[in-house]
Amino acid sequence: MTLAPLINARVLAVVRAPSAESALLAADALVAGGIFGLEITYSTPDAPAVIRELDARYGERIYLGAGTVTTPEEASMAAAAGARFLVSPGTRPGLTAAMKATGLVVLTGALTPSEVMAAIEYGADVVKIFPASLGGPAFLKALRGPFPDVALMPTGGVTPENLDAWFAAGAVAVGAGGDLVSGADLASGRYDEVERKARLFASAGARG
């Protein structure tokens, strides 16, 4: 297990799509725009099938994983489909153990210092700070004080304009959802807009 692919990707696009087809089109737009970290959430219909198709389509060109993992079965299905990392919105000991058992990189959600400590105790490789929009980069920087050696990834409230601030605050990578892949854009089929936003994030990430 290595965090190098996550660190190199810098931005994980959180794809919550209304259909499998929409998720695939969004993923294509993201890759075309220069975003190569893709988190396909289980709120997307047929998420494992989407992951399987994207793995076949892009292989090692992308860093592909599953998000909103809430059961051990979802962790196993994502791993079998070709995911290379798993993300849970929160931290539970049994679920984290099941995620760890896949051998994939495990990211579990936390917000408070106590929750960060629990995520570390249960074995998360990366702690997903969510919703990071509540505290902003200043909150992430404050967490780095007691947790200087913990890999932290803020998700929520990440934009091209504040991307530098998140990394300066100590983020190992960032998760970008609605500001990158908005539900409105997907619902109306504006995949060109997804690609445009991806280019903005990619450009900001390259400067960081």
From TrEMBL:
GO molecular function list: lyase activity
Pathway: Carbohydrate acid metabolism
Gene3D superfamilies noted in UniProt: Aldolase class I
Entry similarity comment: Belongs to the KHG/KDPG aldolase family.
Membrane spanning stretches: none
UniProt cross-references to Pfam families, sorted A to Z: Aldolase (PF01081)
PANTHER family associated with the record: 2-DEHYDRO-3-DEOXY-6-PHOSPHOGALACTONATE ALDOLASE-RELATED, 2-KETO-3-DEOXY-6-PHOSPHOGLUCONATE ALDOLASE
Protein name, UniProt field: 2-keto-3-deoxy-phosphogluconate aldolase
Organism, as annotated: Cryobacterium psychrotolerans
InterPro entries (alphabetical): Aldlse_KDPG_KHG, Aldolase_TIM
Self-association and partners: Homotrimer.
Record's keyword terms, sorted: Carbohydrate metabolism, Lyase
